[in-house]
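Dear Dr. L.,

I hope this message finds you well. Following up on our conversation about the binding site, I have prepared a predicted three-dimensional model of the protein together with zinc ion. For your records, I am including the exact sequence and ligand specification that went into the calculation, followed by the structure tokens. Please feel free to forward this to your student if that is useful.
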Amino acid sequence: MKDIVITDPQILLDLVNELILCTFTFKNIRTMGSRSEAERFHSSGRFKKQSLQKCDIIKKGLLTADQVISILIHLSIIAPVGINSEGEEEYFLPCVLVHAPVSVLASTVAPGYSPLLITFKCGYTPRGVFSCLISSILCSREGQWVLASDKIYRNQVMFHLTEYGHYVLLKNCIKYLQVTITVCHGSTISDVPFPKIQEFLSQHLLIVITKLRYSAHKVGHSFGFHCTLEDHATSDPHIAQCIISIQNPHIKCTIGPSPMTASLTLEQAIWFKVSSKGQDKTNYSNTLRTSFDITHLSMVLRFLTKEHYDATTWQQLGLALGIYQPTLNKIESDARGKTEDCLRVCLSSWLRQEDNVKESGIPNWYTLAKALDSIGQRSIADLAYVKH
Ligand SMILES: [Zn+2]
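The resulting structure of the complex is given below.
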């Protein structure tokens, strides 16, 4: 893959276009081998590698089907979804899917929890985020989120949590994403790992927003709920933001007739490791404390060595992590320029949160991934994101 340089991205756009077109005209099969194959692609966005053979870019020999698949996976345009009933590997291309009919969208919500809403600073779901989120989830190494059925829509996807048996419905409501849960047969709402689901989605949103090169400052996501504040009951349905601070997690609504704040209801607090009155603080702060300290040095070094990080770029990495240049200069002269030593001391400074590290982002997999990404070490960055 590293040997491929794509000078004209148009060929990739053409390929995706060609795939999309064959779902519109699936009755006069162009690319697909058979009608059932074409219909499966049309209804659930799933296709096989050999379906790519008839695409122009591969017929012309510009890229092989394997290369195309690796590139599209890397760009989160497609995701591998496992083996079909005939034992063939399938891939998922969310952007070919059709919108869910209105009747399908109207589902009832089980009592005991409030649907979680994911909002974005820009005020709407940024372009590409929903389909990339689905691909990112399906590509995740945990593999415990799988597509629940063949009924997949462009704006609505049901996942099956294989570990627990529950179902998670993700819906793109244009202005926000909505997360609803269906409890598996024989379980109750208290068996659902709500905070885990929320954290999992949050992690993948961070990955996707970074991958799509959106600025987290402009489009970053946050959580909210349909506003249920009493004084706001008469106005149009709207979203109240959830402010997740350790001291005082609460709901803040600025949209109704009079802006107001309130503590989380039990149905809302269930998504976070915090009680409705904020008493159970220990649990919650533990989840925030996933940051690294100096005891993580050998783990971080092992990771970088294993993934063939180019240690000669240690200064750039240090700067990206928030270490100042004078500190880096001192590290270099102290270590007499020995690259491995420089990297080790530089990472130690990062883990001890020296210089500007606190402001650049406390040490964890995410900040490491972001720094690696910013200095062009993309493939290692992706691996670090996955760990995050
Ligand atoms: Zn309100």
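In brief: Residues 194-211 form the longest helix (18 residues).

With kind regards,
A. P.
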